[in-house]
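Let's sit down with a protein and look at its sequence and fold side by side. Which protein we use is up to you, so please pick one and set it down. Label the sequence line and the structure token line clearly, so we can match residues to local backbone shapes. Go ahead whenever you are ready, and we will take it from there:

***
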Amino acid sequence: MHRLMVTSATYRQSSHIPADLRERDPTNELWARGPRFRLEAEMIRDVVLAASGQLFRTMSGPSVFPFQPEGIWNQPYYQDYHWATSEGCDGYRRGLYTFWRRTTPYPSFMNFDASSREFCNVRRIRTNSPLQALTALNDLAFFDAAKGLAKRILVEAAPSDEARATYGFRLCVSRYPKPKELDQLLNLYHQQLQHFQQDPQAGAKIMEGVILPAKGADPSEFSAWTVVSNLLLNMDETLTKE
């Protein structure tokens, strides 16, 4: 039934609302447009990992401990417990498998309105706060995904800057960028490339723990694409069901 609903022509419509349709059917009672909403916390993690090529799709098994900020579990009653970040593929599993402690839940999920699981909820209330943008831009798990997306762009796309920017954009939002959007991405890339070429130490911080996609790859180029990827993964359209 779920598959039938989400693959139907009605559900797959664009959420764009023309002026005449907004006037005729403001509450969408005629189902003339698709739904638009920000994805739930666990789904956002899945989308980001999938776009970056890092998502480990094996199903079932025990909970995992992905990246989270330092000090979250530094509580007096947690002396016998610590968050040991999962290694290898376990660190890139779906959000569904993330370990959960009700007194100290996974912080990025809470910023994206996940429930604390202390009681049953009929539905989650969606909010829009600065913490959500800060999480998508700065959280270690998101920034690690940006590095993965940059590596994928350099390996899988054609070698021109335009092709790489287009490929990264399509991986995140499943459409081709408009000319203005492509120009903005290229401007950002060239700006960042110049910055990392002039300040190699800044690029070295981004490159920590990263294996370059190929021998002889330019670290400044990789770092610049990482910044572009960080922007792409933080776009509203990336995190929203349009």
